[in-house]
Amino acid sequence: MENFQNKTAVITGAGSGMGRYLSVLLAKAGCNVAICDIDEDSLVKTSEMISQYNVASSQHVVDIGNKEKIDEFYENVMAHHESVDLVFNNAGITVVSDFENLEEKDWDRVIDINFHGVINISRKFLPHLRSRPEGALINTSSIFGMVAVPNQSVYHAAKFAVRGFTESLAKEMKDTNLQVHSVHPGHIGTNILAKAKRIRSGNDQVASGLVSLNSEMTDKEEGEIFRDNGMHPSRAAKIILEGVIRKNSRILVGLDAKVMDLTQRLFPNHYQKLWPLVLVPVFAFRRNLRKPLPGIAQES
Ligand SMILES: NC(=O)c1ccc[n+]([C@@H]2O[C@H](COP(=O)([O-])OP(=O)(O)OC[C@H]3O[C@@H](n4cnc5c(N)ncnc54)[C@H](O)[C@@H]3O)[C@@H](O)[C@H]2O)c1
User: Fold this and answer.
1) How far is the CA of 117 from the centre of ligand 1 (A)?
2) How far apart (Å, rounded) are the C-alpha atoms in residues 219 and 111?
3) CATH 3.40.50.720: does it fit domain 8-290?
4) Residue 287: pLDDT band by 50, 70, 90 thresholds?
5) Of 124, 97, 286, 105, whose CA–CA distance to 205 is shortest?
6) What is the per-residue pLDDT across 90-127, written as a single tens digit (0 to 9) for each?
7) CA angle centred on 253, ends 247 and 259, rounded to 5°
8) SS3 for 3?
9) What is the pLDDT of residue 87?
10) Helix (H, G, I), strand (E, B) or coil at 74
11) Is the separation of the CB atoms in 12 and 89 below 8 Å?
């Protein structure tokens, strides 16, 4: 795929973070967008941001973790746009808890959204994407689909699974019209942790290696520090779209993601111990990347 002009993209989780800026950058590039989120208010704000670009857009309030709603979502998108060229399975949540204290309903909810949501939407849109002259399926895993830390077992289970699914499908689709990408962001400054359910059980290490959080902090403080210290999601979205144009099947977002990937290859048993050493210079370098990209619609 050489550019996004006059194509149509579906973006899930478009009300916030990377999904919002994927939608803005795609619209800026002349791509029509079908934006989806479970949160209607945030979707309206994204819709306002893309209204300055001269593209067709539609808004879809959908819980992608509810399998029953995926057929209707597909039909609604098709009724608005007739055809779709790109699908970004971006929506995701996390719950921070050790496994022993994680309730089954929270486990199921994360798996339903982060894994089954990706599978069900991929399954539904795949025949149509295959019928297009060129199509792209872009599934967001995480660097946490490659390395593991404590208190994120369900998130890892889903994100490792998304990577496995996506890499297998990419091989099946080799030499076809469909490019398939798995996306592995490092620490991106979004509200994902601020919105996360947090079960405190004494062993409260969270997002270790990505950002300095400690058990003295409140949930709110943790969420704000996470949001304010990561790469701005507009910059992450730009890297993802560049990866699609370059046909990179695996898109690592951020130097921290690249460093973490490398450390787990070199030191599979000890990589997390190395992160405080090797990631400090990366975090210092990242300061410049916390600002939004210039020249695009911004959040008010
Ligand atoms: N922020 C990071 O550091 C980071 C790192 C690696 C991977 N990721 C992944 O990137 C993706 C985007 O995350 P983000 O950081 O931009 O988070 P975010 O919280 O800013 O945005 C996620 C969006 O998904 C929506 N969403 C949640 N559940 C939904 C559902 N059931 N149906 C539809 N929409 C739903 C939310 O309302 C929100 O608007 C997620 O898959 C996340 O796991 C994030």
Assistant:
1) 12
2) 22
3) yes
4) confident
5) 97
6) 999 999 999 999 999 999 999 999 999 999 999 999 99
7) 115
8) coil
9) 99
10) helix
11) yes
- Asked whether the CA dihedral 226, 229, 233, 237 is positive or negative, the reply is negative
Contact 245, 1 (CB under 8 A): yes
- Told to judge if 53 belongs to the known catalytic residues of this protein, a careful annotator would answer no
Tokens of 283: 């975090």
Q: Provide the residue ranges of all domains of the chain, joining segments of one domain with +.
A: 8-290
| Number of CB atoms found within 10 A of residue 192's CB | 23
Which residue ranges have their beta carbon within 6 Å of ligand 1?
Answer: 12-13, 15-19, 37-39, 42, 62-65, 90-93, 113, 140, 142, 185, 187-188, 190-192, 195, 230, 233
CB 102, CB 153: distance < 8 Å: yes
Residue type, 160: F
**143-170, pLDDT tens digit by residue?**
999 999 999 999 999 999 999 999 999 9
Instruction: Output the residue whose Cα is nearest ligand 1's atom 43.
Output: 92
How open is the CA angle 276-279-281, to the nearest 5 degrees?
A: 115
Q: What is the pLDDT of residues 18-52, one digit of tens each?
A: 999 999 999 999 999 999 999 999 999 999 999 99
- The answer to whether 20 and 155 are in contact (CB under 8 A) is no
pTM of the model: 0.97
State how far the Cα of 197 lies from the Cα of 186, in Å rounded to an integer: 20
Q: Which phi-psi region, left, alpha or beta, contains residue 295 (left: φ > 0; alpha: ψ -120 to 50)?
A: left
Residue 210 has pLDDT above 60, yes or no: no
What is the C-alpha to C-alpha distance for residues 235 and 294, in angstroms, rounded to an integer? Answer: 10
Structure-block tokens of residue 177: 């019209």
